[in-house]
Amino acid sequence: MENQIVEIIDGLNNKASLKQYIYRNTLETFKNLRQVARQIADQVAPEVLKKDPDVEVELREINEFEFHLKFSGDTIAFIMHTNVFTFPPDHEVTKTKYVQESPEMGYFGMIQAYNFLSDSLKYHRLADVGYLLARIFINAEGHFYIDGQRQLDFLYKDVTNNVINPEMIIKIIEQSMMYALDFDLYVPPVDAMSEITLEQKNYFNNPSGMATGKRLGFKRPTPKKSQ
């Protein structure tokens, strides 16, 4: 058998098999994340409804790799990527003794959490912006690393000792919800809305029209180059 064929078979038996195992491990973690999110929604909803019956708190399953946790005007979309990733050589994860001694532990599945306005999803406003709250990386041993916003960006950097479990999942979901609640929709500055076209005016009366995001109004238009 040719050497290259042997190398290909060896690669499939090792790296490809490892990636399939990580994929299955990530999918199992994603299922647990969805289950815990549903439990939180079921716990929070009755207490919120006591004060205001119009405030919705619920979990919506989109497909095998996506679910939405809706709480009033905010929705967190949890999305699992189906591929397996590794970090660049100069990344802090790659430099850890844990990964240096076992390079196969440097391969990770990824779950992303995005904050959307609930109305963006309700009215299918395709131009609306969602904001990344966290990226959760899980390896073959269930060790995990997170980058994201606030506590989610510095509490879970110790990939050597962080192992995913129900308690950790609860904290991740709760911190994601807290950040989304504190991240308010700002009114755009007046000069950003001082002129509109007739088409834009018509969009104001169409829920699926004008693009909206929590900080979208503060992105100033790029000046046109003089001809």
Structure description:
The radius of gyration is 22 Å and the shape is globular. The chain is 38% helix and 22% strand. Helix 1 crosses helix 5. It has one domain. The chain has a six-stranded antiparallel β-sheet. With 227 residues, the chain is α+β, with helices and mostly antiparallel strands.
Helix content: 25-40%
Distance linking N and C termini:
66 Å
Shape field? globular
Nearest-integer average pLDDT: 84
Helix-and-strand structural type: alpha+beta
Q: State the major sheet.
A: 6 strands, antiparallel
Rg to the nearest angstrom?
22 Å
As for the number of domains, it is 1
Give the number of DSSP strands: 6
What is the N-to-C order of secondary-structure elements (H for helix, E for strand)?
HEEEHEHEEHHH
